[in-house]
Amino acid sequence: MATEGKGVAIEAEAEAVKEMNVMVAVDQSESSFYALQWALENLFRRKGAAVETEEVGMVTVVHVQQPFHNYVLPAGPGIYATSTVIESVRKAQEQNSSVILSRALRLCKDKMVKAETLILDGDPKEMICQAAEQMHVDLLLVGSRGLSKLKRAFLGSVSDYCAHHAKCPILIVKPPEEKLSRESST
């Protein structure tokens, strides 16, 4: 009888994972993909023969494109950015988003976790918090690039902003030191 109770507990735990609405924010940084990998390995996979082969849960992978401001800017003496230039910048942003989300979906597929993607336009820190609130996310995961205090002060930190403004629990996943130092040197 003790083993029956344990089996029910494992099934209940797997069922709780299935119901969890998790959002992971990704960008081109390796630290954001480390956060996604961490989520896939620690939140969606359970040890044990019975559960290991099942799909357990779904993740929403969100990427935010920086807004392209349609200002008329001089591109040289008497030359201004045209609608063709603006359109090519937008197309490049869309291609970049597609590459980022394709990589994220491949990671999810490799771990047998269902995933959906979301591309937003705007300030990443504000849009991530807004999307998490609108989608009633149970947990928001973001990576941490390990910016110095000075860089955080000037550039801002998406993870820091989300930690203070998200209306749901947030997990900031920091990569191991060797990954941080490799990424900051590039």
Automatic annotation (TrEMBL):
<protein>
    <recommendedName>
        <fullName>UspA domain-containing protein</fullName>
    </recommendedName>
</protein>
<dbReference type="InterPro" id="IPR014729">
    <property type="entry name" value="Rossmann-like_a/b/a_fold"/>
</dbReference>
<dbReference type="InterPro" id="IPR006015">
    <property type="entry name" value="Universal_stress_UspA"/>
</dbReference>
<feature type="domain" description="UspA">
    <location>
        <begin position="21"/>
        <end position="174"/>
    </location>
</feature>
<dbReference type="InterPro" id="IPR006016">
    <property type="entry name" value="UspA"/>
</dbReference>
<dbReference type="Pfam" id="PF00582">
    <property type="entry name" value="Usp"/>
</dbReference>
